[in-house]
Amino acid sequence: MKLLEEKVLKEGIAINENILKVDGFINHQVDPALMKAIGEDFASHFEGKGITKVVTIESSGIAPALMTASAMQVPLLILKKSPSKVLNENMYQTIVTSYTKGTSYELTLAGHLINEHDHVLIIDDFLANGEAATGAIRLIRKAHATVAGIGILIEKSFQPGRAKLEEQGFFIYSQVRVKKLGKDLIELA
Amino acid sequence: MKLLEEKVLKEGIAINENILKVDGFINHQVDPALMKAIGEDFASHFEGKGITKVVTIESSGIAPALMTASAMQVPLLILKKSPSKVLNENMYQTIVTSYTKGTSYELTLAGHLINEHDHVLIIDDFLANGEAATGAIRLIRKAHATVAGIGILIEKSFQPGRAKLEEQGFFIYSQVRVKKLGKDLIELA
Hints:
Two copies of one chain form a homodimer.
Chain A: H1 2-11, E1 13-14, E2 20-21, H2 23-27, E3 29-30, H3 32-45, E4 53-57, H4 62-72, E5 76-79, E6 91-98, E7 103-110, E8 119-127, H5 131-142, E9 146-156, H6 161-167, E10 172-182, E11 185-188
Parallel strand pairs in A: 4-5, 4-8, 8-9, 9-10
Antiparallel strand pairs in A: 1-2, 6-7, 10-11
């Protein structure tokens, strides 16, 4: 997606060969017009796929996923990173381990918000090793719902996330594919 | 705001005299059309106040705050609940203690994203004791920016948050004011 590619090249900050900071327009400060364009782009790419819900993982996926859900006129489901303190019955839960960050978290989804008739589009900001997307897929399968596809803002195409997900038969559309990172270097695919 | 009042009365679930679950349309599943209407309502209430940015706290404030920023055509700043692992220089930080939940967290804001010319609107989903809003205000003041007002989706008007913030001279607009909660009881103000 041209607009996001330009923004990444102009305002993204490559720290080293693994870390790309996009705090100025995606994660910490958010540009609503860019998010709207991102949402419309995802909606047009996944049009006609019978998608009933958009699913994302809190919290940096929420802004693009909301704009996607808005453009598609379907509800957004936010997978929570810690179990709700309020009610725990009928909760789907799974542990996600991030090898890049060296952390683990519990991802939860309330059972009454999804069912076997749901066909969902997963939206997330980054795809690197695919751990978060894989965790989301596990929860969606526990609910017997199906995955229509995975929409990613920025894919690190030098990492194995895409291959792992494609091996399982999932369709991935990334708006920007970063082929190489280095100190002050961003090379797109 | 009529639309949100109706939604709270129809789909909100009062667990006890303190807890109102709105997981079905605000926190866990999000209704994009409702969020758009919420954002437009905030934008019209704070029109002409010279607002340069909308500020919210991750993660349940992100959806309504993004739609508000979108309607106002200004950037959204998301205050993070844990310090960025990537870069720590020029970070404003403060500790927020939630007496209701019995938890504390660190709220952070990158210094390069805000300055003394910013006049911000704080948007959050709930106002109860005002701890989160007070923490956000501390960060905004550390950056020498100013607060134009506070927009809340659901205020628990039986708790002291509003009084504490108004004492400090802040203007608060709540779309829904809940006067009383109890098992299966929601009474609006």
